[in-house]
Specification:
By secondary structure, the chain is an alpha/beta fold. Helix content is 42%, strand content 20%. A hairpin with a 2-residue loop joins strand 12 and strand 13. The protein is globular and about 70 Å long. The chain starts with a strand and ends with a strand.
């Protein structure tokens, strides 16, 4: 599907709504109140489609001051986050360049979400680690303020070491799965010798105990995979420091395409303004690639930006979206 219209008419809002409905959160903001129209008290997004040969309806309702309500085929889900276990959605927006050029936290978050999609049975590993980390940090602060003794830290230290080893192991497995496809997709888009790197080692109990006094002083755990980084490179160049913006865009796009190929069920691909900085040859390569995947929604200012005929064309004007089939 190709969504076209002038800048500022709502193309990105349409993609954001699809992401919110299928993943339970916005790729743009974590402030749900920003998703509700000014002057209104609630918002609702409904998406209908097919999964395999079965119809599927997903809805997400937002209300000021209340938890989000997600439903699948009319049945209420335990949480909005449950949507991610039902439908996979991958999104490219210009601000996703933070995955490459942003701080390490952005890369950790991206690859931990990929971990959950590629290894659904291990999706909780990053969250379990972070929850335990929060508990250990709270225990450190209690010791710092004299409300507890160091003996109370031992169980949390042991658990952190255990979960850190598990998280590092599954991050490595995630990168091992992604790297071959990432290298291939990046190569065909013109980013040579693309690679991912993660050389972190999980801390042992002994490692954590050696720096215990510093952790108590600071009230935080200063060692572990919550501080790790992932290398995204082209040859010997770290693209965070030495990549052009064009190369960083290609890296993010290649990561999405690589993951989409690996998922057992084709994801919903949302590609916002992805064509504007690609030359004609690369646009043709991208169009051919996404044609072999699941449902893809691409935005552009003009239909001519896509060098092939889309299955469906949606023309956006202020307050109006008109769809027509092209096949």
């Amino acid at each position: 599907m190709l969504v076209v219209g002038p800048n500022g008419v709502g193309k990105t809002n349409l993609l954001e709504a699809l992401h919110v409905a299928t993943q339970g959160f916005s790729p743009r903001t974590r402030q749900d109140a920003q998703l509700i129209r000014t002057g209104e008290t609630a918002a609702r997004v409904v998406v209908e489609g097919e999964r395999g040969r079965s119809p599927i309806e997903i809805s997400l309702t937002l209300r000021h001051g209340q938890a989000k309500e997600a439903r699948l085929n009319g049945a209420r889900l335990p949480s909005a986050e449950s949507l991610r276990r039902e439908v996979s959605t991958l999104v490219f927006t210009p601000d996703r360049l933070a995955v490459v050029k942003g701080a390490p936290a952005a890369r950790r978050a991206y690859f931990d979400r990929a971990l959950g999609r590629l290894f659904p049975a291990r999706a909780a590993v990053p969250q379990d680690y972070l929850a335990t980390l929060a508990q250990r940090n709270a225990a450190l602060r209690r010791v710092q303020f004299g409300n507890s003794d160091t003996a109370a830290l031992a169980p949390w230290t042991e658990r952190i070491a255990e979960l850190a080893a598990e998280l590092v192991s599954w991050r490595r497995a995630t990168l091992e799965r992604l790297t071959p496809s990432f290298k291939e997709r990046a190569g065909e888009l013109g980013l040579p010798e693309a690679r991912l790197g993660y050389d972190a080692e999980p801390p042992t109990v002994a490692d954590l105990e050696r720096r215990l006094s510093r952790d108590i002083e600071r009230g935080t755990t200063g060692l572990g995979p919550h501080l790790d980084d992932v290398l995204i490179a082209s040859g010997d160049r770290d693209l965070r420091q030495y990549g052009s913006q064009g190369e960083q865009r290609l890296a993010v796009l290649s990561l999405l395409l690589a993951e989409a190929e690996l998922l057992p069920t084709p994801p919903l691909l949302l590609l916002d303004d992805v064509l504007s900085e690609l030359d004609l040859g690369r646009r043709r390569i991208l169009a051919a690639r996404v044609a072999t995947m699941g449902q893809t929604v691409i935005t552009a200012t003009h239909a001519s930006a896509l060098p092939v005929e889309p299955a469906q064309l949606v023309e956006i004007e202020p307050g109006l979206a008109e769809s027509r089939s092209t096949t």
